[in-house]
Protein backbone atom coordinates (compact mmCIF):
# COMPACT_ATOMS: atom_id res chain seq x y z
CA UNK A 1 0.00 0.00 0.00
CA UNK A 2 2.78 2.46 0.90
CA UNK A 3 4.59 1.62 -2.34
CA UNK A 4 1.54 2.78 -4.30
CA UNK A 5 1.28 5.95 -2.22
CA UNK A 6 4.87 6.89 -2.99
CA UNK A 7 4.30 6.47 -6.73
CA UNK A 8 1.90 9.40 -6.96
CA UNK A 9 3.97 12.54 -6.43
CA UNK A 10 0.89 14.77 -6.55
CA UNK A 11 -0.65 12.99 -3.54
CA UNK A 12 2.56 13.35 -1.54
CA UNK A 13 2.71 17.10 -2.30
CA UNK A 14 -0.99 17.58 -1.43
CA UNK A 15 -0.54 15.80 1.89
CA UNK A 16 2.64 17.74 2.65
CA UNK A 17 0.77 21.04 2.04
CA UNK A 18 -2.09 19.88 4.29
CA UNK A 19 0.34 18.99 7.10
CA UNK A 20 2.21 22.29 6.79
CA UNK A 21 -1.10 24.16 6.92
CA UNK A 22 -2.46 22.17 9.88
CA UNK A 23 0.74 22.80 11.87
CA UNK A 24 0.73 26.49 10.82
CA UNK A 25 4.30 26.20 9.52
CA UNK A 26 5.98 28.73 7.25
CA UNK A 27 8.75 28.20 4.70
CA UNK A 28 12.24 29.43 5.56
CA UNK A 29 12.80 32.90 4.14
CA UNK A 30 16.02 34.80 3.54
CA UNK A 31 15.19 36.96 6.56
CA UNK A 32 15.29 33.83 8.79
CA UNK A 33 18.92 32.99 7.97
CA UNK A 34 20.42 35.44 10.49
CA UNK A 35 18.74 33.72 13.44
CA UNK A 36 19.62 30.26 12.11
CA UNK A 37 23.26 31.23 11.63
CA UNK A 38 23.31 32.66 15.17
CA UNK A 39 21.97 29.36 16.55
CA UNK A 40 24.60 27.44 14.57
CA UNK A 41 27.41 29.77 15.69
CA UNK A 42 26.53 29.28 19.38
CA UNK A 43 26.88 25.53 18.96
CA UNK A 44 29.98 25.81 16.77
CA UNK A 45 31.84 27.38 19.70
CA UNK A 46 31.48 24.09 21.61
CA UNK A 47 34.15 21.40 21.04
CA UNK A 48 31.63 18.97 19.52
CA UNK A 49 31.06 17.61 16.02
CA UNK A 50 28.57 18.99 13.48
CA UNK A 51 25.51 17.15 14.83
CA UNK A 52 24.89 19.64 17.69
CA UNK A 53 25.09 22.51 15.19
CA UNK A 54 22.46 20.93 12.94
CA UNK A 55 20.31 20.15 15.97
CA UNK A 56 20.50 23.80 17.11
CA UNK A 57 19.42 25.01 13.68
CA UNK A 58 16.53 22.51 13.58
CA UNK A 59 15.41 23.60 17.07
CA UNK A 60 15.51 27.26 15.96
CA UNK A 61 13.35 26.34 12.95
CA UNK A 62 10.85 24.54 15.19
CA UNK A 63 10.67 27.46 17.65
CA UNK A 64 9.81 29.80 14.78
CA UNK A 65 7.36 27.27 13.30
CA UNK A 66 9.32 27.08 10.05
CA UNK A 67 9.43 24.09 7.75
CA UNK A 68 12.66 22.16 8.28
CA UNK A 69 14.41 22.12 4.89
CA UNK A 70 15.94 19.08 3.25
CA UNK A 71 19.29 18.04 4.80
CA UNK A 72 21.18 19.15 1.68
CA UNK A 73 19.95 22.70 2.22
CA UNK A 74 20.91 22.70 5.90
CA UNK A 75 24.44 21.56 5.08
CA UNK A 76 24.98 24.53 2.76
Provide an overview of this structure.
- It is built from five helices and no strands.
- It has one domain (1-73).
- The termini are far apart.
- By secondary structure, the chain is mainly α.
- Helix 3 (33-44) packs antiparallel against helix 4 (51-63).
Strand content: under 5%
Overall mean pLDDT stands at 80
Low-confidence parts: none
Distance between the termini: 35 Å
Question: How many extended strands?
Answer: 0
Helical content band: 55-70%
| Rounded Rg | 15 Å
Main β-sheet description: none
Taken together, the total number of domains comes to: 1
The run of helices and strands is HHHHH
Instruction: Figure out the total of helices.
Output: 5
Structural class label = mainly alpha
Question: What general outline do the C-alpha atoms trace?
Answer: elongated
Secondary structure elements and their pairing?
Elements: H1 2-7, H2 9-22, H3 33-44, H4 51-63, H5 71-75
Helix pairs in contact: 3-4
Pfam family, one: DUF4158
Protein name: DUF4158 domain-containing protein
InterPro entries: DUF4158
Q: Which descriptors would you attach to this protein?
A:
76 residues, mainly alpha, DUF4158
Amino acid sequence: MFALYAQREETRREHARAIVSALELQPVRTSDYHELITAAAREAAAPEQGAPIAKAVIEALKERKLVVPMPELLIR
